[in-house]
Amino acid sequence: MKKILVTQPRPDSEKSPYFDLAQKFNLDIIFRPFVEIVGLTPQEFRRARISLQVYKSVIFTSKNVVDHFFQLCRGMRVNMPESMKYFCLSETIALYLQKYIQYRKRKIFFGKQEFSDLLDILLKHRDDPVLYPCSDLHKQDIPQQLQLNGVNYTKAVIYKSMCCDLSDLVHEKYDMIVFFSPSSIRSLLENFPDFRQNNTLFAAFGPSTAKAVADAGFRLDLQAPSPTAPSMTMAIDQYLKKKVKKAVN
Fold first, then answer.
1. Structural domains present in the chain
2. If you average pLDDT over each of 20-34, 94-108, 114-128, which comes out highest?
3. Residue 211 to residue 213: CA distance in whole angstroms
4. Is the separation of the CB atoms in 226 and 232 below 8 Å?
């Protein structure tokens, strides 16, 4: 194992565990996004005929959603009232709101990472009109759970995933490619319709990404999170340790 392609932007911090991984196993780790996230313009969003001002609550499932939501609000000259309730999938996302609002003066709720945790909190406010901002390739399980539990919600697509041009990678060879979303698999196939996996290892983060790998007819060699590896770097670390140990024995 010498060369790994990670289908995400290069980490901002040099303290990223990816760099520790590279040093530990003498790896060449290349970061290259396969998907570009593009926010809808106010003109595009208005076609959905959704008025942001009528909602008393909003659900945030990622930092990406937070960024694009407030960028859209700014573009539409909409200010969120102090009475707005923010329901975040995790505490990390909740704390990220400080980038846009005064955290202590707002009604902010968060789960433990799973939507089922957040749903328990949401159900206490089920009568409030709730906005669920998402991407064009959002997971269907969240709207389904909201509907099944009688939450008064509206789904609002506020950004879309666009496949990046990967033509410069046509002659590159990697020992492992790490995917983080179904759209990254779609990007691979759009750029290289005749791609053959051969000996290249495919790693996937999350069940939906793993399913996309299998649905595309590829072999899934490594998946995270798992009980012993909650992050992709930990999963790769454990995989390489086993390889080294096997080679020694």
1. 3-34+164-248 (3.40.50.10090), 38-161 (3.40.50.10090)
2. 20-34
3. 5
4. no
Distance CA 82, CA 129 (A): 16
Q: Which residue has the tokens 């490594």?
A: 222
Say what the pTM is.
0.74
What does the H/E/C string look like for the chain?
A: CCEEEECCCCCCCCCCHHHHHHHHHCCEEEECCCEEEEECCHHHHHCCCCCHHHCCEEEECCHHHHHHHHHHHHHCCCCCCCCCEEEECCHHHHHHHHHCCCHHHCEEEECCCCHHHHHHHHHHHCCCCEEEEEECCCCCHHHHHHHHCCCCEEEEEEEEEEECCCHHHCCCCCCEEEECCHHHHHHHHHHCCCCCCCCCEEEEECHHHHHHHHHCCCCCCEEECCCCCCCHHHHHHHHHHHHHHHHHC
Q: Name the residue among 182, 179, 178, 176 with its Cα closest to residue 211.
A: 182
5 pLDDT higher than 90: yes
Amino acid at 122: L
> How many other C-beta atoms are found inside a 10 Å radius of the C-beta of residue 199?
8
Report the range of poorest mean pLDDT among 108-112, 132-136, 222-226: 108-112
Are the beta carbons of 86 and 58 closer than 8 angstroms? yes
